[in-house]
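Chains adopt folds. We examine one example:
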Amino acid sequence: MGEGRIDLPQGTLDLLILRTLALEPQHGWAISERIQQISSDVLRVQQGSLYPALHRLERRGWIKARWGTSENNRRAKYYELTKSGRRQLEAGKDAWEKLTAAVGQVLGTA
């Protein structure tokens, strides 16, 4: 892990994937690129954790996959958010905001 990089807890990665897919359907590699880009290179998603997360989200019915053609004309699996995935994203964002506010309060008292 490089300097300034952070390992993501599992639930956090799920939430970031859902958020990325809320913008538009994406294939796996593009999801990790987008997260890295938006986080100013701090969050790097390894393929080894990305694909198990995508399969987990698909099993839960929060995303669905279909085959399509990528920008460079290769066959790729595209993932998109389902209705229940959108609800999960909203619930996850609320929980995340409560958690970070509470942790911030505790750290601020040190």
About this structure: Residues 83-108 form the longest helix (26 residues). The chain has four helices and three strands. The chain has a mean pLDDT of 90.
